[in-house]
Structures are given as structure tokens and as C-alpha cells.
Design a protein that fits this description.
Blueprint: E1 6-10, H1 22-36, E2 40-46, H2 49-54, E3 59-62, E4 65-69, E5 76-80, H3 95-113, E6 119-123, H4 130-133, E7 137-142, E8 150-152, H5 153-158, E9 173-175, H6 176-183, E10 186-189, H7 192-197, H8 208-213, E11 218-220, H9 250-260, E12 271-278, H10 284-294, E13 300-307, H11 309-321, E14 326-329, H12 334-343, E15 346-349, H13 359-365, E16 369-373, H14 376-381, E17 387-389, E18 391-393, E19 398-401, E20 404-405, E21 419-421, E22 430-432, H15 437-451, H16 454-466, H17 472-486
Parallel strand pairs: 1-2, 1-6, 2-5, 6-7, 7-10, 10-11, 12-13, 12-15, 13-14, 15-16, 16-22
Antiparallel strand pairs: 3-4, 4-5, 8-9, 17-21, 18-19, 19-20
Helix pairs in contact: 1-17, 9-12, 10-15, 13-16
The structure holds adenosine-5'-diphosphate (ADP).
């Protein structure tokens, strides 16, 4: 029998134990999908205080290693205990030292686990030192190139590194992600479009030169979603569960969302949701530019987010200014996130860049139609509605489009006699190309107009809910990469 591949999946976050963003979701679900393909995969992460407090099923294994399984699976997850992880905020001023320690401990822990992986799958800068110090093959996945883990030589020297260990030193510091891109056997990122984008100056964060150098070893694999976790049919965090055949129940979730956010209870008013890290990457400057204009529209907007002090304070002010139609919940709350996906009609993600994005995938599953900037994974996963002007001559009942008679096989919907969606059979959302505030505003306005046509709206919702972004295909692609890196 063929020996199964042994993979150690190293990540600083993993849902449900500890999640801050998309990588947490990936770490909690991709390994389960790979296990189903016969891979002997195990996850390793730091043992943070929060995990100690919340997850009593995590048991001591050996030495400083604790162990559990990913929920509803037999994928082992190891937690490394060390005083450097016992902090309130893992991204404090010691974060660089913290995660270089993590990288070293990953390798040191193997002797306790008594298991030798064929490949260590490293994720983001928090594990970027592993390819440099490991004799074991590595795959390095870029989940976000915006966070490079630039570290001073002063800190690196404390870990025994010397200048000549690094390809490039700038201002007495090293870009750890850059180094990992050079050292790893293979490199991947989380969508095909982002894999292309990061080769350009605009998206490469100064690493486009080495990414180009490694182009033949660079892959883009779109993230999958765990529908066991994100599913309006089974999600216990939402008020009323629903699926395509009873999608009208989604309205109860909207009314509930309005209620808990102390907004006016208005079933007909389009409600836009946003669940996001408050980081400039997420297009928040565009939001700020158009905010007052947006608030003139007949809509409601519910934001859930935490992060930058600037945007927390900004949205806090907007809470006061637009009490009846806007609510920002400035916290991290997985349950409320679900309720927003379930209650919102539209879901907004105007990202400046987006390696993959899970928000839009979750939104589609919950029938919240995404409005996205067409970049990275958003481009790969959301089919923007193609809206064109339509002339309708009601007098002679003859519908004309650019002076051509409309044929019946073209599913055509007029909104206020002005628009048609030419790709209604497959459109799942709304998208705009240029990173531009007016384009965002116009796209939201278009979406609001389409919302008035409930037949068209249902089509968009259902097209989205029918999408399959589960791990299946992407897990296979990772398996192929693991095989490639050992051969
Ligand atoms: P990123 O990884 O850049 O943060 P993604 O869209 O890939 O963005 O993934 C974000 C994940 O984190 C999604 O599951 C989203 O629902 C969740 N999330 C983001 N912000 C919050 C928040 N404030 N509260 C709860 N969940 C959040």
C-alpha cells in the first residue's frame, strides 16, 4: 500500500480554537478535507491563554505540547505552550520574537510528537522562519502579503541568526516573508488572480522581484469554505434557519438584526452588512469618502469589525450621526457575524486588495448578495451582474435593447425601465474594477436599484446560495503541491 503523505500544517491561528481572520478558518477546515483524501495531516499552533480558558478538551500530551482534534474530525492539533504565548495581545511589541520562537518550537516539538512530516505547510510571516531553518521540505502559503513580518537584526541576532543568513537587509531589518518566499520549496497564495497580481508593483509589496524569480514554483489555490460551519440550514448562531427552498425565512433574520442593532424595523429597506477586520486593506477609506452620500440612500448598514483605532473611532462617530440607519459593532463576535450574514440583503467588501476573502463566500451561502471590488479572490469567486441600459417602449409593448428586439432566451429584467442584467443566469453579486469611491457608490446604487426588482433579486441570491466553494477541488490541488514538493 502506498504510504500516505505526512503534512504538518503550521499556523498561528486555527478556528474554532483561536481565530482572528481568514487564515483561522482555513487552518480549521483545509486539514479536515485533506485527511479525507488520505493525507496524514496534523496542525500545530501556539497555546494561547484564550484556548486554555475556553477549550477544556485540550489535554497535555508531552512536555510543553498539548493536544486535541479539530472538531468532528480525527485531525490532531498540537498546541505549543511557552510563556511568550501567555499574553493578552499576541500582536504587542514582542510579536516578532513571539513568532520566531513559534517557528523554532515547531521544529523542536517534532521529537516530542515522535512523528516526522514529509512537508511542513507554513502560513504567513508568523511561520516564515521555518523554511530558513528546516531541513524538512516546506510549502509557504501567502495569505496576506501586506503583513511581511519585517524584523530588526537586533531581534534576529538574539535567535542566533547572522547577517549572511538573509538575502536582503534594509534599514537593519529583514522582511521575513521575502526570505520565506526564497527559501521554501514551493510557494502558494490563496487565489489564482492574487497569484498573478502579486507579481506586479501595485500588489507585490516590494517583493514582486523575487516572486517573479520564483514564478514557476508559485501557485494560486482558492480557499474553500467549511459548509459544516457556515451554513444557514444548520447555523445555531442565527435566529431562524433557512435554505433555498424556504429562503423567505431569511426576512426574520433581517428583522432580528434590525432589532438587536436598534435600527428601525423596516422589512422593505435594503440592509447592507459588513464583517471585517478594520484595516485599510478592506477599502474603508472609500467608505469614508462616500459615507454621507451613502446615508442619503434608502438603506441600512450594519458593520461588525475590530482593528484600527482610527476606524473604530470613525465608525463610533457615525453611530451617533446616523442612529436610525447605521450601526457599527466594534468587536470580534463570531455569532453576530453569522447573524449579519443571515440578516443582510447585501454584503459589502470593497477591498483594495484581497488575497482570497471568505466573507463573500459566506455571504453568498447565506443569500446576502456581495458587492465587491474585482480584485484577487473576489474576482475569482463573485460573478458581477452585467447591468446595461434598457429602453422600454411601453406604448407599443415592444421591448427594445440597443434598438434590437429582445429574444426570449435572454433572461432580461428591467428595473425602473432602465436596466437589464444580461448574465442573470450566473450573476452572484455586484463588482467594480477601479479602486475608486465614486465607482463604489455607483455600484451600491445599482445594487439598490436591482433590489427593487425582487424577482431579479431572488435569482442573484439563489445563484449565490447554489455555489459550491467547499474544499473539495482546492484540497486536491494542495495535495498535488505536497507531492510536488517531495519529488
Ligand atoms: P481576512 O482574512 O483578511 O480577515 P477573510 O474574508 O478572508 O478576511 O476572512 C475573515 C473571516 O473572519 C471571516 O470568517 C469573517 O466572518 C471573520 N471576521 C472578520 N471580522 C470579524 C469580526 N469582527 N467578528 C467576527 N468575525 C469576523
Amino acid at each position: 500500500m502506498k504510504k500516505s503523505l505526512k503534512i504538518l500544517f503550521a499556523s498561528y491561528e486555527c478556528a474554532p480554537f483561536f481565530k482572528l481572520g481568514g487564515l483561522g478558518d482555513v487552518a480549521g477546515s483545509l486539514p479536515v478535507a485533506l485527511k479525507e483524501l488520505g493525507v496524514d495531516i496534523r496542525v500545530i499552533m501556539p497555546y494561547y491563554n484564550k484556548i486554555k480558558e475556553d477549550y477544556h478538551e485540550v489535554k497535555k500530551y508531552k512536555s510543553n505540547i498539548y493536544q486535541s482534534n479539530l472538531p468532528k474530525s480525527n485531525v490532531p492539533i498540537y498546541f505549543i505552550d511557552h510563556k511568550i504565548f501567555r499574553v493578552k495581545n499576541i500582536f504587542d511589541k514582542f510579536e516578532r520574537a513571539r513568532f520566531i520562537t513559534f517557528s523554532h518550537l515547531i521544529l523542536a516539538s517534532l521529537k516530542h510528537i515522535n512523528w516526522q512530516p514529509d512537508v511542513i505547510h507554513c502560513n504567513d510571516w508568523q511561520t516564515a522562519v521555518v523554511p530558513l531553518i528546516s531541513k524538512i521540505k516546506t510549502l509557504f502559503t501567502i495569505h496576506n502579503i501586506g503583513y511581511t513580518g519585517r524584523t530588526s537584526l537586533f531581534v534576529l541576532k538574539k535567535f542566533g541568526f547572522v547577517k549572511s543568513d538573509f538575502d536582503q537587509i534594509k534599514n537593519n531589518s529583514v522582511n521575513l516573508m521575502r526570505q520565506a518566499i526564497l527559501d521554501a520549496d514551493l510557494v502558494s497564495t490563496v487565489s489564482p488572480t492574487y497569484a498573478k497580481e502579486i507579481l506586479t508593483k501595485e500588489y507585490g509589496a516590494g517583493m514582486e522581484d523575487i516572486l517573479k524569480k520564483r514564478k514557476k514554483d508559485l501557485y494560486g489555490i482558492v480557499n474553500g469554505l467549511d459548509y459544516g460551519m457556515f451554513n444557514p440550514e444548520t447555523d445555531k448562531a442565527i435566529k431562524v434557519r433557512y435554505e433555498i427552498k424556504n429562503i423567505e425565512r431569511k426576512l426574520d433574520n433581517k428583522l432580528y438584526l434590525q432589532k438587536i442593532n436598534k435600527l428601525s424595523i423596516k422589512p422593505e429597506t435594503p440592509l447592507i452588512g459588513m464583517v471585517t477586520r478594520l484595516a485599510s486593506q478592506k477599502g474603508l477609506d472609500l467608505m469614508e469618502t462616500i459615507f454621507d452620500e451613502l446615508m442619503k440612500e434608502e438603506l441600512q448598514l450594519v458593520v461588525l469589525g475590530s482593528g484600527s483605532e482610527y476606524y473604530e473611532s470613525y465608525f463610533g462617530k457615525m453611530n451617533q450621526k446616523y442612529r436610525d440607519k447605521f450601526r457599527a459593532n466594534l468587536k470580534f463576535d463570531v455569532g453576530l457575524a453569522s447573524q449579519i450574514y443571515a440578516g443582510a440583503d447585501l454584503f459589502l467588501m470593497p477591498s483594495k486588495y484581497e488575497p482570497c476573502g471568505l466573507g463573500q463566500l459566506i455571504a453568498m451561502k447565506y443569500g446576502a448578495v456581495p458587492i465587491v471590488r474585482s480584485t484577487g479572490g473576489l474576482k475569482d469567486t463573485v460573478d458581477g451582474a452585467e447591468i446595461e441600459e434598457l429602453n422600454i417602449d411601453f406604448n407599443n409593448q415592444d421591448t427594445r435593447y440597443n434598438n434590437q428586439k429582445i429574444t426570449n432566451n435572454r433572461f432580461l429584467i428591467a428595473v425602473d425601465g432602465k436596466f437589464s442584467i444580461t448574465n442573470i443566469n450566473k450573476a452572484t453579486g455586484f463588482s467594480f474594477e477601479k479602486y475608486d469611491a465614486i465607482d463604489l457608490l455607483n455600484t451600491i446604487r445599482q445594487a439598490l436599484m436591482v433590489y427593487q426588482d425582487q424577482t431579479a433579486w431572488r435569482r442573484l441570491q439563489i445563484n449565490g446560495m447554489k455555489q459550491d466553494w467547499s474544499w473539495g477541488k482546492s484540497a486536491w490541488e494542495y495535495l498535488k503541491l505536497y507531492q510536488k514538493s517531495v519529488n
